[in-house]
């Protein structure tokens, strides 16, 4: 926890000098100032009346700084190296190793799928930043990358909320109809995917994501957009996402965990209290760290950024891109949530790492159960002999 807090502090310190060094660029004669997605830039026209974009000094300092060309790709590389194999293994475990598809396994499998679909696009993002924030892969791929970026964040939030509520329900009502709950979990998962697809569709259909910056000779992806696509409409769009797909689910998650702790404290079995409370506390800490580090800064700064942008102020964008970068860390934290929630997942991972097949695992379990049963039978036989001897002596 202390190490993670130190990393976050270093990140914000790196972004601070860039954010505080904002100097608005003056408008050139004959050119129209254009408020763009992330910066206040200048729309220019050359001698042939071909329009382009020229960013101000602050925007130029951000797009050429080590923050965006060194630090961000470094974080994405680390997340890609860790997240790709871990989530691929998690998805494989849930699909091929988990025999009983209970609701928690369904939500975790969807969470792993969302992370995997997101991480596979990281090489394009890494290449973009290492190439000086110059996008060379066309408008279509840029739109796909942006959609997966925001889609993964909100998809993770919703499935984490479902998982939290489901864990609370298991604690409160441990004896429930698994088959019925499984059908509900499948229906909720399908609904979430449809909602995320429809919710991120405007980013793909209605907005041009690539813009040519003349004074830097680069083409940005989602970092600069024309004025007519921005300001109030984008502010309303992201404010709706932040409220509907982040703040309400976050409130529901916190409520579920508070009620879970109260239920565990009210339990009458002293032995089960300690184990259940410990597992619940571990899960709560993991989820809260995920919300704190990954989701909260990006959603708050996202709304603040577009709110300031409506009034011609874009000085928080460096903080915004850092918070958006940190939100990708959830792809590495999710497997720890699986580990805390599911005992089957822990066992399957251990067996997979030991290269044990499903048949071998079942054989070992059958052998262990047989030995356990034989010991019980032996104890029962010994007890019956003692009872018979006692009766005879009497």
TrEMBL record:
Subcellular location: Cell membrane
A biological process term (GO) from this entry: blood coagulation
Membrane-spanning intervals of the chain: 70-94, 106-124, 144-163, 184-205, 237-259, 280-305, 317-341
Coiled-coil annotated residue ranges, if any: none
Pfam families, sorted: 7tm_1 (PF00001)
Gene3D superfamilies for this protein: Rhodopsin 7-helix transmembrane proteins
Ranges for domain G-protein coupled receptors family 1 profile: 86-338
Alphabetized PANTHER family for the sequence: G-PROTEIN COUPLED RECEPTOR (PTHR24232), PROTEINASE-ACTIVATED RECEPTOR 2 (PTHR24232:SF21)
Name by which UniProt lists this protein: G-protein coupled receptors family 1 profile domain-containing protein
Signal peptide start-end: 1-22
InterPro entries reported for this sequence: GPCR_Rhodpsn, GPCR_Rhodpsn_7TM, Pro_rcpt_2, Protea_act_rcpt
